Amino acid sequence: MKYCFFILLLVLASCNKDLLDTEPIDRGVLPLSPYVAIGGSETAGFADGALHLQAQQYSYPALIARQLQQVGGGRFAQPLTIDSGGFVLLDGQLNSRLKLGYKFDCKGNEVITPVRGEITANTLASYTSSSESGPYGNWGLPFLKVAQIQEQNLSASNNFYYRMGADTTTLLVAINNRNPKLFTIWLGMEDILDNAINQAPEVAPINFYNYLVPLLDSLTQDTSAAGFIATLPDVTAFPFFNTIPYNALLLDQTMADALNQTYAGTGMTFKAGNNAMVITDPTAPSGKRQILPTEKLVLSLPLDSLKCGNWGAQVPVSARYVLDVQELEFLRYQVENYNFFIKDLATNKGLNVVDINALYQRLDLGFNINGQVFNNTMIYGGFFSLDGINPSYRGAALIANEFIRVMNANYRASIPLVSIGQQPGIVIP
Amino acid sequence: MRGLASILFMFCSSALVAGGIQLALQGVKQSGMGGTGISNPLDASTIYFNPGALSFTQKNSLNLNAFMLLPKFQFREEGTNKLYKMSSGITIPFAGYWSWNTNPKQHWKIGLGVYTPFGTNIDWGSTWAGRYVAANSKLNVYHIQPTFSYNIGNRVGVGAGFVYSLSSMEQGRALPLAFGSGVDGQIDLSSKANGYGFNAGLLVHITPKLDIGASYKSAIQYKGSKGVVNYTVPDALTDSFPDAAVNTNMQLPWSVDIGVTYRPEPRLALSIDVNYVGWSAYKNVVNDFAQPNSLLPAQPLPTDLNNAATIRLGGSYDIDSTFTLRAGTYLDLAAVPDGTVSPLAPDANRFAITLGGTMHSGDRFELDLSFTYIDSARRTESQADNYAGLGGTYKGNAIAIGLALNFNLGKRPKSTTPETLAEP
Q1: What domains can you pick out in chain A, each with its CATH number?
Q2: What domains appear along chain B, each with residue ranges and CATH number?
Q3: How far apart are alpha carbons B319 and B316 in whole angstroms?
Q4: Of the candidates B291, B257, B287, the residue with the CA atom closest to the CA atom of residue B271
Q5: Are the C-beta atoms of B197 and B217 separated by less than 8 Å?
């Protein structure tokens, strides 16, 4: 009987004891607070084509701050949108975020595609104010160009600034007023993207450098502050530029014959099956040509015009929807040079470099995190939100972890990483 | 096509791995002695351990074994420092054996064994960090083995059994396709398949004190067409992920076992066994998956398993005519190479200590008890090297409690020593 009792004791002891312990966590020598994040759309929590509540809550700075709080970090306020659908101004019109939904296309087929949600009274309220009061830690502004950092009346050129309640000062002064002990910077993306998508004039790398210097000088005045600056990814790999295939023009023999007739003498040829689309190109002899396999069509290209408006066929696709070989080469060159200056500035100003570019490069081949493969594909690639440019919540978590890894490595800290799969995924209807 | 087939392959191929799944629980007496039994015919359960030794067992008997297995596993995710616990589902492996001949003095014996050599019941839950790799897995394998054994001059015993096997498998994991509620999609597979093989053995009675045994348990190939894959995905994707029938093609590993038993005195028996298990022969492919699907990227496949050995030591001592004490230990080496460890079978080197006892009640009945404590070594997979990017540390243990009833059906008078071999 004693023997049975002994067994029972062993069973109970085994059942109640934890087999593994959590490892100790520690901030090391990293100053934690106040933490200020500076950057563009990704930093602000702009995703799915709008600045919206959930994307702000899962923005990479918010995720970093949440992990810092586990080792003693303080409050990290963000100018959260009042409406969960958030807002964005498109051609002067207020719009709310994209969600995957059903829509009838021009041919009457029901397709699953990102669609904008309803506008509510709160959409306008989100535009003018926030549901969370400052002082803010997240000074990321959607579409923030480096030239805007010291711009007076910034809300005139960036309508996301007004709601931050700092309209009387420049962004640089507003940030400086927070006296950050810890700051993260991810700037330059919006300048590259504005040039790529909106044909805005490029910002020369040396000018990019010159715009950053006053910001970094001001932030590094406090020599005890810890600063982290992110490198820029090659934006031309984003799904926004890679989702519509160059040869999306699907023809039968009759249509191909008609096009061959239309474009006789231009050197363009069409056959039954998939064909390279016709685009405008002022440098081509006839003003138009077929797009090359290495060139890219942007996701803002109206799909109904492709399907029903003869775009890419009888109607050449306007060059503004196309990144041609020279533009692509130039964009990659810009990114490379920006990154050169980012690393150069980091060395000169004593900042830590976070190689976000390397993270994005891994998306080209894809990588597996806990059974989920992340790559450059829309929706199922998991990394990008529905706008094809800004990260999803899990993408933001991957970015946050890159920052935390550098904090841990350079400041003898052991801040736990964000659990990628425990962040919300992309909702499919 | 390849994409989805690969996803499924990944899903199934690590289903069944090494000692965590290969249950060393086929007889309560043997369990008490570190799982040794290749060269020590303790009772009718030798039908499993070594069919060659069956003809040396003296009585016609019915031997019924049941085990309560309480496994426990934990996982600490790399980087995030978060702990996850496998819910410890209790499994109850059983084994029953019957042996018979017309007269105990005959040199032959026939027998029938029904036992569960492989099995698993794992549930990590549907919200844990590794749910896209594995959420739950259940495998049941039943062997039915009619056996014939013959001894030559009471000196060399040979025997073999035909094995007919039934298997059923259920597995589920989450898919990174979120419903509006935030819940993940799910893929569930269930399959049933049958197979056959054999179990053959040899026992040599070298001296009254020394026996050597060997057995070979063949690989068993299962084919079945009753598998079903069910997807639970958001409405927009139901057309892309249609439920489908699948064919099962599974092969469980072979095992070469050798053992030596030495009896320095009649009341004491000491055994050493080595099982060498051919995990390299293991495969588990669910194929014939005709639905192309490129929405989820293909997953890299885990590499093959390594053959692995288990070394067992055990002994028994007759305290008196009514009670026998047993004890043992074993070391079960991991078969899953680094980089392919999966939560379905968190394989690692295992070390066990065992205790057991038999109460002899007169001539007709024996009651066996056994207790096994298995410690599964801490094993760390790095996120960068793991086939599914699941980095972290696994640690497990298990307790198995066995109870057996042994009915002697013959009319032979009981000897004071348990089932020692007849003199040549």
Answers
A1: 35-83+127-241+325-422 (3.40.50.1110), 249-323 (no CATH)
A2: 2-408 (2.40.160.60)
A3: 9
A4: B257
A5: yes
Return all residues near B127 (Cβ < 8 A) that are at least 6 apart. Answer: none
CA-nearest residue to B374 within chain A is A14
Contact call for A14 and B179, based on CB within 8 A: no
Cβ neighbours of residue A92 closer than 8 Å, sequence gap 6 or more:
none
**Per-position DSSP letters for B16-44, written without gaps between them:** S-HHHHB---S-HHHHHTTT--SS---ST
- How would residue A8 be classed by pLDDT, with cut points 50, 70 and 90? low
Looking from the CA of A183 toward its CB, the CA atoms found within 13 Å total 31
> Nearest Cβ partner of A428 from B79, B130, B178?
B178
Name the minimum distance, in Å, from the CA of B182 to any CA of chain A.
7
Q: Does the beta-carbon distance from A14 to B397 stay under 8 Å?
A: yes
Nearest to B73 by CA among B402, B349, B347: B347
Q: Number of CB pairs < 8 Å for A and B?
A: 127
Nearest to A235 by CA among A38, A37, A42: A42
Range list of β-strands (E), B233-287: 244-252, 254-265, 268-278, 283-287
Q: What is the pTM of this model?
A: 0.92
Quick check: B299 and A401 CB within 8 A? no
Q: What is the pLDDT confidence band of residue B15, given thresholds at 50, 70 and 90?
A: very low
Distance from CA of A2 to the nearest CA of B (A): 14
In angstroms, the separation between the Cα of residue B234 and the nearest Cα of chain A is: 6
Question: Which residues, 6+ apart, have CB-to-CB distance to A374 below 8 Å?
Answer: A363, A366, A367, A368, A381, A382, A383, A394, A395, A398
* Beta carbons of B133 and A375 less than 8 Å apart: no
Give the distance from residue A370's alpha carbon to the nearest chain B alpha carbon, in angstroms.
4
Q: Which of A132, A136, A105, A127 is nearest to A50 (CA)?
A: A127
Average per-residue pLDDT for chain B:
86
From CA A22, how far away is CA B240, in angstroms rounded? Answer: 41
Question: Contact at 8 Å (CB) between A201 and A308?
Answer: no
How far apart CA B333 and CA B377 sit, in angstroms, is 10
B-chain CB neighbours of A403 within 8 Å are none
Return the number of other C-beta atoms located less than 10 Å from residue A271's C-beta. 12
The residue whose two tokens read 């028994």 is B316
Min distance A19 CA to chain B CA atoms (Å): 6
Predicted pLDDT of residue B402: 96
- Residues ≥6 apart with Cβ < 8 Å to B243: B228, B229, B230, B231
Which residues of A make CB contacts under 8 Å with B?
3, 7, 10-11, 14-15, 18-20, 22-23, 25, 100, 102, 112, 366-373, 375, 377, 380-382, 401, 416-419, 421-422, 424-429
Distance separating alpha carbons of residues A230 and A35, to the nearest angstrom: 16
Measure the CA–CA gap between B71 and B6, rounded to whole angstroms.
30
How many other C-beta atoms are found inside a 10 Å radius of the C-beta of residue B183? 15
What are the tokens at B80? 């995030």
Q: pLDDT tens digits for B335-393?
A: 989 998 988 878 899 999 999 999 998 888 999 999 999 999 999 999 999 988 999 99
CA-angle at B259, arms to B257 and B261, nearest 5°? 160
Do A181 and A224 meet the contact criterion of CB atoms below 8 Å apart? Answer: yes
Residue A294 pLDDT exceeds 90: yes
Distance CA A285, CA A306 (A): 24
Q: At residue B98, does pLDDT exceed 90?
A: yes
ipTM, interface predicted TM-score of the complex: 0.91
Write out pLDDT tens, residues A198-242.
999 999 999 999 999 999 999 999 999 999 999 999 999 999 999
CA distance B127 to B173: 10
* Spatial CA neighbour of A146 closest among A357, A361, A327, A342: A342
